[in-house]
Each structure stands twice: as structure tokens, then as C-alpha cells.
Amino acid sequence: MELIITAIILGIVEGITEFLPVSSTGHLILFGHFLGFNEGSFTILFDIVIQLGAILAVVFYYRKKIWESLKNIKPGQWGFKLWLIILIAFIPSATLGFLMNDYIEEYFFSPFTVSIALIVGAILMIVIEKIFANKDSEEIIDISTRKSLVIGFAQCMALIPGMSRSASTIMGGMIVGLSVKVAAEFSFFLAIPTMFAATGYSLLKGFTAISTVEWIALAVGFITSFIVAFIVIGKFLEFLAKHSLKVFAYYRLVVGFVMLILIAFKMV
Predict the structure, then answer these.
(1) Over 38-66, what HEC string results?
(2) What percent of the chain is predicted at pLDDT more than 90?
(3) Is-contact 22 252, C-beta < 8 A?
(4) How far is CA 182 from the centre of its chain?
């Protein structure tokens, strides 16, 4: 029963944080540390599975637009342009992640790294929003290949746990002139190939024999993550239509500094 409760908690954490600019990986590391769920091959597999739940939530949320884009996928059609710019934005982090994944997992997956990344990311969010906010914006389909490449390079920051894939891509989008809302929507679409690739790669490395209780925990975590993420996506877009990113930046600062204090006093 304890494992099932942990699965529910972490599923909720993943669902809430995956698409908010606060770092889902960072929060899973922190919550996993406090729950004593941060070691072993099953922990790795569990994090992968609940991330997959969040990915499918995006696919389901945008199912109509995705289906229409696939029906217009021929060169010269809008669906082709959409997936082309997403592919271009996907390449930088996919390449760097493939080359650096083992090194990053070994040296950067710690509460201290997450705390620093949360703080640094918060400062960047405040500065970038102050400089680049309120620019004219186009729709996703109008984003140029050059702009998508810039966003792709910005996403590379998310390889450091605590930086946040969502925050990194939204900041990249704002730098090239997108509104926060359009940048967030592009971030959601970019999450589809990015997270499927990361999940598939991790599954190939981390699959292991598991017990019946662990299978149940995986199912519970997956379903919880899917439901929560689906709700959060819509609410987040509604929020960005009327508000700035500052509330998320302040949240990151508070969590980051609190964690550093706990680390300094050896409480984590």
C-alpha cells in the first residue's frame, strides 16, 4: 500500500510539473528523496512510465490538431511545416542528450544541483520576460526554421535537472519574439518527440523484471500523471493568456533557497 500511495503522490507531482516552467525532473528528484524513493532500477522505470502518461496527455489534448496536421503532411502543406519546425527544434537537445545522458545522470541528479538550477532558471525567467515580453507574436505554424532552431538550442538547458524543459523552451520562444502563450503551446508540441525519444531511450536502458505490486504502482502512477497533466495543460494556457511567468519564477526561488538551507543543515 505504501508503494501505491507513493505512486499516486509522484504521479500528481509529474502531472502538475511536467508542463509548468518549474521542472518535473527536479521535483521528482526532491519528492523521491523525501519519500525514500530515489534508488534502484524500478525507480528509474517508474519515472519513465509516469512521464509517458504526461506525454500522452499532450497528444490527447491536441488530438484534433495533430490528426489534422497528419492529414496535411505533404510538402507545402501546413502539417508538413508544423512537424518540420518541431523536428528542427528537437535535434539540438536530442543530440546533446544522447551524448551526455550518462554523465548528466551520474553527476547532476542531486537535490543540490536541482536547487541551483531552480534559482538560476528563475532569474533567467524574470530577466528574459522583462526584456522580451509584449512582443508581436505569430501562430505556431508561422514560426520560421531559424526561430525553431533557437528554441531547440534553448531546450538544451533542460538537460540539467531543475532547469525545466518547459521553462527553457518558453524562454527560447520569447527571445525570438513569441508571446508567452504561443511559446508555451510550441513547448507542448515539442514535448511530444522530445519526451517520446527520452522515454524510449531510458526504457531500453532501464527495463527490469518487476513484481505484481510494482506493476500496479506503475499503472496507478501512469493514470494519475495522465489525468493531472491533461487538466494542467488547459489551465496553464488559460493562465498565460492573462498573467506573466513571474509567479513561477518566485516559486522556483523559494523552493531553491529552502532546499539549499536544508542541504546546508544536512536535513536532506
Answers:
(1) CCCHHHHHHHHHHHHHHHHHHHHHCHHHH
(2) 56
(3) yes
(4) 16
pTM metric for this prediction: 0.88
The grid cell for 118 is 531552480
Q: How far apart are CA 174 and CA 181, in angstroms?
A: 10
The DSSP code for 19 is T
Residue 203 CB-density burial (10 A; 0-12 exposed, 13-18 middle, 19+ buried): middle
Angstrom distance (rounded) from CA 24 to CA 26: 5
Distance CA 208, CA 41 (A): 7
Q: Are 136 and 79 in contact (CB under 8 A)?
A: no
Q: Output the nine-digit C-alpha cell for 221.
A: 502512477
Give the C-alpha distances (Å, rounded to integers) separating 21 from 56, 63, 171, 246: 19, 23, 10, 10
Which residue's entry shows cell 512510465? 49
Give the model's pLDDT for residue 48: 80
